[in-house]
Amino acid sequence: MDTLFVGIMTKFIVVAFLLLHTSASSPSSSSSSPGAAGMLKQLFQYIDDHQNQFVQRLREWVTVQSNSGDHTKWGEVERILNMTAVRIQEMGGTVDFADVGTHQLPSGETVPLPPVILAEFERDPKKATLCIYGHVDVQPAKMADGWTTDPFNLTEIKGNLYGRGATDNKGPVLAWLHAVESYQEIPVNIKLIIEGLEEVGSYGLLELTRKINDSFFADVDFIVISDNVWATRNPALTYGTRGSSYFFVEVDGPKLDFHSGVYGGSIQEPMSDLIALLGSLLDHTGKILVPGVTDDVAPLTEDERKLYDNISFDLEEMKSVAGVKHFLQDTKEEVLMARWRNPSLSIHGIQGAFSEPGTKTVIPKQVTGKFSIRQVPNMDPPDVERKVKEHLLQVFSTLKSPNRLRVTATVGAKPWVANLKDPQYVAGQRAVREVFGVEPELIREGSTIPIAQNFQEETGKSVMMLPIGGHDDGEHSQNEKINRIPYVSPLNSFEFFLHSR
Amino acid sequence: MDTLFVGIMTKFIVVAFLLLHTSASSPSSSSSSPGAAGMLKQLFQYIDDHQNQFVQRLREWVTVQSNSGDHTKWGEVERILNMTAVRIQEMGGTVDFADVGTHQLPSGETVPLPPVILAEFERDPKKATLCIYGHVDVQPAKMADGWTTDPFNLTEIKGNLYGRGATDNKGPVLAWLHAVESYQEIPVNIKLIIEGLEEVGSYGLLELTRKINDSFFADVDFIVISDNVWATRNPALTYGTRGSSYFFVEVDGPKLDFHSGVYGGSIQEPMSDLIALLGSLLDHTGKILVPGVTDDVAPLTEDERKLYDNISFDLEEMKSVAGVKHFLQDTKEEVLMARWRNPSLSIHGIQGAFSEPGTKTVIPKQVTGKFSIRQVPNMDPPDVERKVKEHLLQVFSTLKSPNRLRVTATVGAKPWVANLKDPQYVAGQRAVREVFGVEPELIREGSTIPIAQNFQEETGKSVMMLPIGGHDDGEHSQNEKINRIPYVSPLNSFEFFLHSR
After folding, report:
1. Are A359 and B324 a contacting pair at CB < 8 A?
2. pTM for this entry
3. Residues of B belonging to the active site
4. Chain A residue with minimal CA distance to B361?
5. pLDDT in tens, A355-377
6. Which ipTM value was assigned to this complex?
7. A50/B contact by beta carbon, under 8 A
């Protein structure tokens, strides 16, 4: 089964970018020409013959614990980048490791950043050039978080391949590579830009994009990103993402952790200061209480509102998937807008306090609260950061605390929204129509893929997000997977499409 | 140096219980008889000859990570109990392992409890019987918490022996055993009751005390506990301890941890519910906001207030030891009362949220906040537990949350206060006077040693707390140690005491 679905995933991309190519280069021409059909037969044969390899590669990649959120794991990030480079070179591509400089940690320590892969395959000036972006770093994962299977040992259960990075984003990156590999003669020129720091905000990638704008990107026509999932069981194109700023609220108090029996009652504890600070951020309705932070949220237009009507989103099903009695909103449209086009604040945890099972009667000397704010047009991360810091300092001043407060922020990725009239989106909608025989859902993504915004702003090229993952893939969660079902339906479409020539 | 101070510690106890014996058995007789002096010379010679062994034993005991707060470490607790039993048997004592039954964990799982050691040495009915209590379990410790040396490898720096359990309570337990070992003919009968669950509230010990009240305790005259430290550089006797209840506030929400980008804004997050709950417990002045919880605090009498005048407590020095700009109170007396005779609430941490370094954009599905309340006469732990639960349920109802709240409490140890007119305290004060040549400071202990209260209430015997550890030993903290300085001054006192015969 697993071998089958990888083939299907790859075939989908093969068809998708063949269609993208034909659609974009000559909008009037039909991709359903005998030539195209013959080429596809040949391609699919190659894919079927190599499925075992494709799955084995995903398994090898998943074993690498390339958790970029912990800089002590950046060695693993470099390892997976090297594996990626070797794969591209084996396929006849050329690879350049771009140095993106250093990064200062919250501790103040400066560390070198893992490089970014810039790759390309032999170029035909007559063909359009497609640049594929992906990332090979992952979120943390451990069995203790509640995984059913080892997150770093790709395991299939009932047609799902479970493993950290299966859908975010190692699986899709490999799918693109397998598609390229499957071609005898590829209809577009291919470039690749693969990074290892997406999960922490793509340090250095923006600067690199500016630096190579006139070289690497000069002849690029389209940039495609497959780093998100469908919203429902229906195929989708994504036209917007939320930005994000990640905040560290450090309260630093006594010299040592103390016994709460010995000092309790005489010391203003960093932990109670921090709880008061975190408690001032949002109310129980999810409303962000930081003054002015939501002032710049773009108003909802009637055209935008209408897009939500077409989305086959089932509120009851989503409740049962999420395992919640109710969401903060009452209607499908409100819930989707809360996730896609409105800001949100999540408190992720506290570092430095007692977090293990059991009991410990400690007064932690220093605690760091962590939260992030998802941002939407037209919010501006530096402005949000300033307002959050002012707010926390103001609240802290009311605590009359002898402790020291330090608020720092990382990431600060801008939100992104595309123009649906852009030729690539027109082509993309046509591709979905031809491959799946249905209208694509035009969706937004609540999570943050900063480079969509950055690529569009810096290169001025057409950027499209083409989701491959299923709506229930659980990126960043326990039991992250790639589900075969979203790829099975395309297969039928392909066959219909081929035999109906 | 380290060998020297262990000798001094042991000599102090040798003298102390010789004096306790003589003081208690015949208040008029002086312990400073030639016989006593001769016996002491002989004893001290034995101690000097065996110091290397004494230090080595403490080192061996410290290597055992008997962290009772984590029930998965109870195997290590049993290991240190067995080492203790072997030591007593080697000294000619008899050991009985008392079964104290099972314990239900917050998870609902039931686990067997480590046994309690009941030991005694050959009995002379003409002598008074002294029962020594101690515990050999410890608080958690790891380098990452900020230890300078390996907490489980006893390390001396400048006359301090650093290691988890050095002062709380493995060191003092060994000191008593070494004192007993040093005697040829011991002036009192010795019984020992040694447990391994003190740090979690001595599960089962209260029931055991009741069970053996008419057997093991029948012929006991005095119970002595050395499980606390002096308040200052001056010797002290302790006449009160605070009680404690440890609370788990579990908020259980979605089925899985979610990506804050995907679900943020649509879900009422368990973490924000928990922050609101924890934020409702106390204000920035340290005042406990749970209605009615402090109603039963005993009023301060004039006699009690006077005791605080004699305590050579230096507020400025304590600030620099603690590393705080100021305490929650302004005067020495207020700070001591806040630590000793008034209740306090400390928030220790959160389990289930992201607590590691770096960034993780997660919405934790289930989080458990942990806090404890130190209690004083005449607060009643079950009453406090009821009021805390009512308060948290009331606050939670205002959050209109779809999540599930579960509040559980463990420990529930009662506060304790002794009668200073008790013969053992009179004897104790005389012993300090004779050994140290100064008036003892009569102090209370902010931390919780539940068995003092339990022994006194259940057995009706005279219970005294005789601190051995230094005021800056840092029990429960990083770099816990036993400091030689508090034991150096007694040495001079001993010599003065001996030569002045």
Report:
1. no
2. 0.74
3. 137, 198
4. A348
5. 999 999 999 999 999 999 999 99
6. 0.74
7. no
